[in-house]
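Standup notes
- DV: blocked on the single-chain target, sequence here:
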Amino acid sequence: MRKIDQLLSEYGESHRNETNKLIHWICVPLIFFSIVGLVWSIPSTLLSEAFPWAGAFANWATVILLLVLVYYLTLSPPLFFGMVVWSAICLYGVFLLDQVALAPLWAICLTIFFLAWVGQFYGHKVEGKKPSFLKDLQFLLIGPAWLMHFIFKKLSLPY
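- DV (later): unblocked, structure below
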């Protein structure tokens, strides 16, 4: 069995309840997005000076996402491409949110992060099982891939 299949299967063991699954479809993308925004908020003068051609995207969120994408690539090249698309959407969404400046980006993202985790823990209470990441932190990155693999299945794409 491939490592990705093993990880998705193990993650799925604590995500069988339909309410919990629905909550995950909402909260996991929000958590991913909010983390991108929180990391984007870290000052990155060094990066913007080193890579002026990258504009606003010369920041720590881009660097961290590149490292996360390498992890996804080691698990599954097709899921890696799906996660590249999702990561780009998140980066662009955070960029736009930062431009609007309704409030400090970090404050908006911290609020999203907190509320999404409240949702996640409620979902696991309904499920009656602990979140997978309490067993292994790697499952914090498997959650988004778990959702992406369902999209791939729906589109009849191998993952």
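- Follow-up: The first helix runs from residue 3 to 12.
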